[in-house]
Give the backbone structure.
Amino acid sequence: MSVKIEKIRLTLLLVLWVCTSCNAQTKHSTTKLIGGGCEGCDAIYEYGDKKLTTIDTLPEFQNNEPKLRIKGIVFKKDGKTPVENVIIYIYHTNRQGIYETKGNEKGWAKRHGFIRGWAKTGKDGKYAFYTFRPASYPDRSEPEHIHLTVKEPEKNEYYLDDYLFDDDPILTKSKRDKLNNRGGSGIMKPIRENGVLTIERNIILGKNIPNYE
């Protein structure tokens, strides 16, 4: 009788061990999505066979005013160490506030339009874009803005606060107060350098980004 009870006890222990092991594996394999959900962030992979460099010039740069240069450095979360090989994807409206398309777009370009660009940071973390200042939506419901997504090595892509313009009258205090400052503040003060408006934004990876470790 005691032998039978011992077998039952060992069997129960074995079942408990198997269940515990399975549960532990499940928790271990769960990967948190950095930055939370992000509709359209995978557009960052739509650069095709384009060789990414530290500088990109967006379509219609030459045909629009005011021209705009965006520059900055991407840092680790410590705010001091530059990060290499971070892909930065931006897109914005045209001067009429429309995400302009040509009609033959594929993927996210159907919504983002063709005025978009990609850059990859160098060893010094620097990046730059040449484009033009976008307009607010025709109904003026949103201030002028440039969308921004980043993809750093070994992490999933996530969005940051848009580039915004400090001198934009639509950028009210109420709208400013609602910003999350993902990657640091996106409110820029444009200055004119050699006839080109210039904004400089240093990006802090992981700053105010959920699930970032």
